[in-house]
Amino acid sequence: MLNAVVKFVTKPLGFAQLRYASQGLPQLSSEKYNMSRKSFGSVESSDVNFFKSILGDDRVLTDEGDVQPYNVDWLQHCRGQSKVVLKPKTTQEVSKILSYCNQKKLAVCPQGGNTGLVGGSVPVFDEIVLHLGLMNKVLSLDEISGVLLCESGCILENLDSHAREHNFIMPLDLGAKGSCHIGGNVSTNAGGLRLLRYGNLHGSLLGIEAVKADGTIIDCLGTLKKDNTGYHLKHLFVGSEGTLGVVTKVAIHCPIMPKAVTLGYFGVESFENVLRLLKAAKLSLGEILSAFEMADFDAITTTTKNFKISNPISDYPFYVLIETHGSHEGHDSEKLNQFLEEQMASGLILDGTIASEPAKIQSIWGLRESIPSAGLRDGYVFKYDVSLPLQHFYRLVPQLRAKLGDRASVVYGYGHVGDGNIHINLTVPEYTKEIHSELEPYIFEEVSKLKGSISAEHGIGFSKRNYVQYSKDQSALHLMRELKQLMDPNGILNPYKVLPEVK
Ligand SMILES: Cc1cc2nc3c(=O)[nH]c(=O)nc-3n(C[C@H](O)[C@H](O)[C@H](O)COP(=O)(O)OP(=O)(O)OC[C@H]3O[C@@H](n4cnc5c(N)ncnc54)[C@H](O)[C@@H]3O)c2cc1C
């Protein structure tokens, strides 16, 4: 067991903040969505003094310029009005802060890397931002079991690098890995690029430490793979988006680092053929298949155009990215090459390239991982992240193109087809309420009719809170409200998020 505490250097500004610094301020969320502030307390100078007595002057931000980046989300769709950012370094500090805020009825917005795409990580009004970025220590990594114990503010990419030094990898990977925190990943139940192979966080999260709204520290930081003793409380925090507690530490099971990684990138004629290829890949690559991603022509073209990067193959209506994680490079690349030959002969693959050199693999993944931010250069992007039964997976994209016509600059679909999760991006020159109300609830109604989920992996946050009923029955919503009442009776933790507004 490695017990040395590894502390990562926190990046002073996440890429969200860098983007924000170079662009104008988005409209205040409270105005954009015509919201009323709930009757929480307002932060006064005596409160600031109390926070300084716990954290010291330098970990309590109150200057407008210092606080502003924490008020704006990555997409620049939401802007809050917080006046205070607190940066705890220990669980005890989080506990003292929450206990105080609960007594004073001061609302709090927990924030990790601020890469969330549903407005959950930024305040709506003047909630205090509780930024977890300084809780960034790895506490241990068990060399045999692969159990990693760390604080919640560790950046995912740093954890992955640390795990790789010991022949493990993190069980999840996403485009925002350079900024998102493991605590944010757990709190959103992030999925990502390799869920197909390594499963979701409900499976790999072994233990959790969290602080309730009243400051009580809940220690469920077990490291066992099997533990059926009572209610599985850790799962309450997975995907609760900062509304039930603040995650302070996690224990995660890390898979062994694959000895061989091979990546194929293929051009495909139709979406029907993408699905046929998925089935063929499962049959032929079975135990080594680690990712199966798709992107349509417009997704790739927008990305290559806006980031001036090249597409390694010519133009096709659809692209598929297939990755394998295995233990024998010769065996795996032979398997993938044979797959390519067979599927070119069958006509499912029109053209393709296969890579096993790290630089080429990285550049193809780089193209895929740049898709989420590509559209932001062209205007305002409406983003939807839905799960759909595979036969309906791509259906909404042409439907939305027809609905918006030339009012949209571009509409495209991409995502984790292996998990039934499509991301649909619609870029318009600028935000208008008219287009917004044409898209919502229309998209959620369509998803619900097709028996899909209105949020596959990004969560509900602020943007989708009034649409949860399209994916959750009234009985489930009622239980969610009861849990919120039990865990946070004053409602101070991330108000205006996840649960629908009570009219
Ligand atoms: C380019 C890009 C690619 C992305 N790709 C994917 C993807 O493939 N799969 C995917 O699932 N998501 C993806 N996302 C969305 C986002 O990165 C994830 O939701 C991520 O898990 C958020 O982590 P974060 O640390 O940035 O959390 P934040 O954005 O800071 O917060 C997200 C939510 O979690 C809460 N929270 C954060 N930390 C804590 C904590 N310690 N305790 C309690 N609550 C907390 C916040 O209050 C908020 O409600 C992507 C985002 C971007 C920008």
UniProtKB/TrEMBL annotation:
<dbReference type="Pfam" id="PF01565">
    <property type="entry name" value="FAD_binding_4"/>
</dbReference>
<dbReference type="InterPro" id="IPR004113">
    <property type="entry name" value="FAD-bd_oxidored_4_C"/>
</dbReference>
<dbReference type="InterPro" id="IPR006094">
    <property type="entry name" value="Oxid_FAD_bind_N"/>
</dbReference>
<keyword id="KW-0576">Peroxisome</keyword>
<dbReference type="InterPro" id="IPR036318">
    <property type="entry name" value="FAD-bd_PCMH-like_sf"/>
</dbReference>
<feature type="domain" description="FAD-binding PCMH-type">
    <location>
        <begin position="78"/>
        <end position="257"/>
    </location>
</feature>
<dbReference type="GO" id="GO:0005739">
    <property type="term" value="C:mitochondrion"/>
</dbReference>
<comment type="function">
    <text>Catalyzes the oxidation of D-2-hydroxyglutarate (D-2-HG) to alpha-ketoglutarate. Also catalyzes the oxidation of other D-2-hydroxyacids, such as D-malate (D-MAL) and D-lactate (D-LAC). Exhibits high activities towards D-2-HG and D-MAL but a very weak activity towards D-LAC.</text>
</comment>
<dbReference type="InterPro" id="IPR016166">
    <property type="entry name" value="FAD-bd_PCMH"/>
</dbReference>
<dbReference type="GO" id="GO:0071949">
    <property type="term" value="F:FAD binding"/>
</dbReference>
<dbReference type="InterPro" id="IPR016167">
    <property type="entry name" value="FAD-bd_PCMH_sub1"/>
</dbReference>
<dbReference type="Pfam" id="PF02913">
    <property type="entry name" value="FAD-oxidase_C"/>
</dbReference>
<keyword id="KW-0274">FAD</keyword>
<dbReference type="InterPro" id="IPR016164">
    <property type="entry name" value="FAD-linked_Oxase-like_C"/>
</dbReference>
<comment type="similarity">
    <text>Belongs to the FAD-binding oxidoreductase/transferase type 4 family.</text>
</comment>
<protein>
    <recommendedName>
        <fullName>D-2-hydroxyglutarate dehydrogenase, mitochondrial</fullName>
        <ecNumber>1.1.99.39</ecNumber>
    </recommendedName>
</protein>
<keyword id="KW-0560">Oxidoreductase</keyword>
<dbReference type="InterPro" id="IPR016171">
    <property type="entry name" value="Vanillyl_alc_oxidase_C-sub2"/>
</dbReference>
<dbReference type="InterPro" id="IPR016169">
    <property type="entry name" value="FAD-bd_PCMH_sub2"/>
</dbReference>
<keyword id="KW-0285">Flavoprotein</keyword>
<comment type="subunit">
    <text>Homodimer.</text>
</comment>
<dbReference type="InterPro" id="IPR051264">
    <property type="entry name" value="FAD-oxidored/transferase_4"/>
</dbReference>
<dbReference type="GO" id="GO:0051990">
    <property type="term" value="F:(R)-2-hydroxyglutarate dehydrogenase activity"/>
</dbReference>
<dbReference type="GO" id="GO:0005777">
    <property type="term" value="C:peroxisome"/>
</dbReference>
